[in-house]
Amino acid sequence: MRHFYGFFLLISTVVTAQQKNTFALDVSVLRGNTIAHKEDMYHLINGHPQGLLLEFTVQTHGRKEWQTEYNYPDYGGYFMYQDFNSRPLGLTYSAGAFYNFYFWKRQLQLKFAQGVALTTHPYDKADNSTNKAFGTRILDNTNIGLAYSNQTVLYPIGFHAGLLFTHYSNGRVKSPNSGINTFLLNVGLQYNFTEEKPRAPQFDSTEVRKSYREPLHYNMVFRTGINESPIIRSGQKPFYHLGFYVDKRLNRKSGLQLGTDLFLTESFKEYIRYYAVAYPEEQLDSNTDYKRVGLFAGYELYINKLSLEAQVGYYVYQPFKKDIAIYDRVGMKYYITNQFFGAFTIKTHMFLAEALEFGVGYRF
Fold first, then answer.
1. Radius of gyration of the chain (CA)
2. Closest Cα to residue 255, out of 263, 267, 247?
3. CB of 332 closer than 8 Å to CB of 307
4. What percentage of the chain exceeds 90 in pLDDT?
5. Are 34 and 182 in contact (CB under 8 A)?
6. Angstrom distance (rounded) from CA 174 to CA 22
7. Distance between CA 178 and CA 171 in Å, rounded?
8. E strand residue ranges, 36-133
9. How would you label 106-143 residue by residue, b for 16+ Cβ within 10 Å and e otherwise?
10. Structural contact between residues 186 and 161, judged by C-beta atoms closer than 8 angstroms
11. Sign of the four-CA dihedral 127, 131, 136, 141
12. pLDDT tens, 18-46?
């Protein structure tokens, strides 16, 4: 009998150690305000935007090392409906992926979400000429949220309430593209499909803890895509952004970057010629060099093979000074191997997007 109980205890331990992820469905209602980040956008703000957010959530329990390091985050897919209560802006329908990170005894939830959106009312010269925010029907959608979360209020029902920032833009793939930003109150319920399970590391915690600190590494990255100058219907042209930077990984989660960018934006060539003719008082030479060179500093947050990065730069060479001298870039990077990576980033000047960048790079 003692052998039986010993065997039963061993089996229970193994089953617990192989505990799988659990799943939940979140439903949230949204209501808030649109942010007018440009003076010519006030006419678009006629009411309070509202919407509905649905999320299918995968809850982690420590099966992998990164889950424990990040306090057992959630991830999954979302669908969001948003009504701007503005006839020119219309409605948007968005879908994508998200991560939820937890703090303060898992009661403070930080959300990062990225996806694509479909707008019902894009810019149209004849029918919707006042909508300078959406130049295309397909948009990029980025959401950042901070909320109080209690998943055990009335188990399997949970509750959350907080703020959600949403951003819509086409990355100036086509003009116009002022984009739209909103701050929304986010209140919702969560339904858990399985009973609550303990969260604990499910790998051998007696192993020597790996040091992630690394020496300096050099990176080369090539980013490309298409965009259009701010002049509507001036034509979409390719761009080529070349980057070289040094990175220093500090620990499991964080790394710093310092480097330079060369921007070869073909749409700038025609834009410079147009600007020189349209605004003679600016005394701009139509042969002004379209190239730009920037220096930047960045931060990289390592999750698993996926990481998030943010960079802030300054143009040290910018003959055509239509944009401000400071630029920023945010996005995701996926390490295919320890050396090769792919990246998707958005380059902006404050709130005004210039390019959606698809990149490949090598780290050596």
1. 24
2. 247
3. yes
4. 76
5. yes
6. 41
7. 9
8. 50-59, 74-83, 91-103, 108-119
9. eeebbbbbbbebebebbbeeeebeebbbbbbeebbbbb
10. yes
11. negative
12. 457 899 999 999 999 998 777 667 778 88
pLDDT tens across 184-204, in order? 999 999 999 987 777 777 665
Tokens of 277: 């003719």
Place of tokens 């055990």: 152
Q: How far apart are CA 155 and CA 151, in angstroms?
A: 7
Return the amino acid letter for 307: S
Determine how β-strand 138-154 pairs with β-strand 326-335: unpaired
Report how far residue 258's alpha carbon sits from residue 49's, in angstroms, rounded to the nearest whole number: 39
| pTM of the shown model | 0.86
In total, the chain counts a number of residues equal to 364
Mode of pairing for the β-strands spanning 138-154 and 22-35? unpaired
Handedness of CA 290, 296, 301, 306 (dihedral sign): positive
How many Å apart are CA 328 and CA 311, to the nearest integer? 6
Q: Which of 155, 158, 165, 156 is nearest to 186 (CA)?
A: 165
CA 238 from chain centre, in angstroms, equals 23
Q: Which tokens belong to 10?
A: 């061993």
Structure-token pair, residue 148: 């109080």
By the 8 A CB rule, do 17 and 57 touch?
A: no
Contact 234, 241 (CB under 8 A): no
